[in-house]
Amino acid sequence: MKKVIIIGGGAAGFFTAINAKEMNPNLDISILEKGKEVLHKVKISGGGRCNVTHACFEPRALVKFYPRGEKELLGPFHQFMTGDTFEWFENNGIPLKTEKDNRVFPESNSSQTIIDCFLGKTEALGIRVLKNHGVNAIKKQESSWLITTKEQQFVCDAVVMAAGSSKKVWGLSESLGHTIISPVPSLFTFNIKDLRIKDLLGISVSNATVKLIDTNLEASGPLLITHWGLSGPAILKLSAFGARVLAAKNYDYKVQVDWLSRPTHEIVNILLSLKSKQPKKQVMVRSPFDEIPKRLWERFVNASEIPATFNWADLSHPQINSLANQLTKGVFTAKGKSTFKEEFVTAGGVDLREINFKTFESKLQNNLFFVGEVLNIDAVTGGFNFQNAWTGGWLCAKGLANN
Hints:
Elements: E1 3-7, H1 11-23, E2 28-32, H2 40-48, E3 53-54, H3 59-62, H4 70-79, H5 82-91, E4 96-98, E5 103-106, H6 111-125, E6 128-130, E7 135-141, E8 144-149, E9 153-156, E10 158-161, H7 167-175, E11 180-185, E12 188-192, E13 204-212, E14 218-225, E15 229-231, H8 233-241, H9 243-248, E16 252-258, H10 264-277, H11 294-303, H12 317-328, E17 330-339, E18 346-350, E19 355-356, E20 361-362, E21 368-370, H13 384-402
Parallel strand pairs: 1-2, 1-10, 2-6, 10-21
Antiparallel strand pairs: 3-5, 4-5, 7-8, 8-9, 11-18, 12-15, 12-17, 13-14, 13-16, 14-15, 16-17, 19-20
Helix pairs in contact: 1-6, 1-13, 2-6, 4-13, 10-12
């Protein structure tokens, strides 16, 4: 009987184990988890609801959400895609639902549903789940592997690295000849202290465009003002695609925000029209743009040095241009970042050039596999990192079952 050890009790590890055992019941599979809990990241993801995947059903469109892994995942997504994820979970008693922003959750709205499914299936399939079994060493012994934990030693035929962003497992991978791309934070909010957004916690706009000045990087989407500065999907996407650029800048950078995602000249024309059509109305009283809440509008008016008592008729052309620029070309200085603590995502990991993406097996060592965030693959928010785990886990399972 072929023995398989999976290092890491997370989503990718469990999904690999379950599918490999179902594909080949003769496999003897154990999952080693260093801590007291398994599937912790599943539990906290999506605010405790587990954002299982994203309703994007075309591989070439889906890979665009991966700053690292775009090219490598195209082939795998043709083998196991989001539609397959829907089918897998529904076949296992977990119907999924798609929300307006295309994020996908279990209909139960609880990540515990996913956890119970995985734990139930591992028990039913006879897959051992060993907690408090952090791996200290891995050695190749001819055609087998020797794995040493604090508790005991294991001899197996194949090893799957599925421990996520683990420095220890990256170190073990290096000891086996693999290259590790140094990790940097991937998803984080921009720390900004600016009077234009001070004390406006919770205010959001539905579709802003944010550019990283002095680069070609930009992202669009909902934008949220937080206690630290700016967040929301637009910021998180920019932080993901700009992860290494921002790290190189030591997180001291400038961003330009177009709060309306519309050309400046178009906004100027709207403001000139207001000056003509409602000359006696006060500028400060009401935002003429539904997308801009009143309190935020007031900040832009103040930043344009327009007196609170001014009517639209009082505005000069320079003041109108200034106001339009605040709305579409406002520059903010960011210093530092705030990461999503437990849902922390990194850019970095095992070099993708060293992986066979037909099976997720190492090109350097036979019967050594890598799945999930242990690889130098990461995505924007919205269920994409889990989809990488499911796809990698499925193809790895096929490789283990057929090898």
